[in-house]
């Protein structure tokens, strides 16, 4: 039986021809999403970008009221620096859900995935199956709550 890493590698090869090359690693906390991303990165000879750390460091130098105006450009620059060829690996993306940044995190990831393959650890949950389910982040009522249909998404579920 193929390992999770082998399944992810095969999926990444298959989506390379698609318009959106975004794979989201989805699973409960402590199921090994980050470990799988790191192992995948080693095989692909690239390291995952810690979005929270990298973007947070850049945003800290910008006045709070101006941050939402510069976040997209900062993330694009960071992605260009961290991408290896046609592949970008992203972890710790929770900062993208910060309401003060006025972003749609999933839309932002999709836009990056038009130019190159993106494999990102999804910090929320998958409800239902990988074809008709929904992706969520935070609980209903939480200011950062998001709920997305799986339309044009490729979730890679880790159990």
Describe this entry's structure for a reader:
The strands form two sheets. This protein has a five-stranded parallel sheet, with helices on both faces. It is an alpha/beta fold and 159 residues long. The chain has a single domain (4-157), classed as Rossmann fold (3-Layer(aba) Sandwich). The mean pLDDT is 93. Helix 3 (51-60) crosses helix 4. The chain contains five helices and eight strands, in the order H-E-H-E-H-H-E-H-E-E-E-E-E. The chain has helices at residues 4-15, 33-44, 51-60, 67-82, 105-115, and strands spanning 22-26, 49-50, 87-91, 117-121, 125-127, 134-137, 146-149, 154-157. The chain is globular, with a radius of gyration of 15 Å.
Brief overview:
By secondary structure, this protein is of the alpha/beta class. The protein contains 5 helices and 8 strands; from the N terminus they run αβαβααβαβββββ. It has a single domain, classed as Rossmann fold (3-Layer(aba) Sandwich), CATH 3.40.50.
The main sheet orders its strands as 2-3-4-1-8
CATH architecture: 3-Layer(aba) Sandwich
Instruction: Please report the number of helical segments.
Output: 5
Radius of gyration: 15 Å
- Extended strand count: 8
Summarize the biggest pleated sheet. 5 strands, parallel
The helix/strand order is HEHEHHEHEEEEE
Please outline the helices and strands.
Blueprint: H1 4-15, E1 22-26, H2 33-44, E2 49-50, H3 51-60, H4 67-82, E3 87-91, H5 105-115, E4 117-121, E5 125-127, E6 134-137, E7 146-149, E8 154-157
Parallel strand pairs: 1-4, 1-8, 2-3, 3-4
Antiparallel strand pairs: 5-6, 6-7
């Amino acid at each position: 039986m193929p390992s999770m890493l082998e399944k992810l590698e095969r999926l990444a090869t298959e989506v390379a021809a698609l318009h959106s090359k975004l794979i989201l690693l989805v699973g409960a906390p402590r199921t090994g999403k980050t470990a799988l991303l790191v192992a995948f990165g080693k095989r692909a000879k690239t390291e995952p970008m810690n979005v929270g750390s990298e973007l947070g460091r850049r945003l800290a130098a910008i006045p709070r009221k101006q941050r939402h105006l510069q976040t997209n450009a900062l993330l694009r620059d960071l992605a260009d620096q961290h991408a290896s060829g046609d592949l970008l690996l992203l972890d710790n993306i929770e900062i993208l859900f910060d309401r003060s940044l006025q972003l749609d995190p999933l839309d932002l990831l999709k836009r990056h995935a038009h130019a190159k393959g993106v494999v990102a650890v999804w910090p929320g949950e998958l409800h239902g199956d990988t074809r008709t389910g929904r992706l969520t982040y935070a609980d209903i009522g939480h200011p950062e709550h998001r709920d997305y249909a799986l339309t044009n998404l490729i979730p890679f579920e880790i159990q």
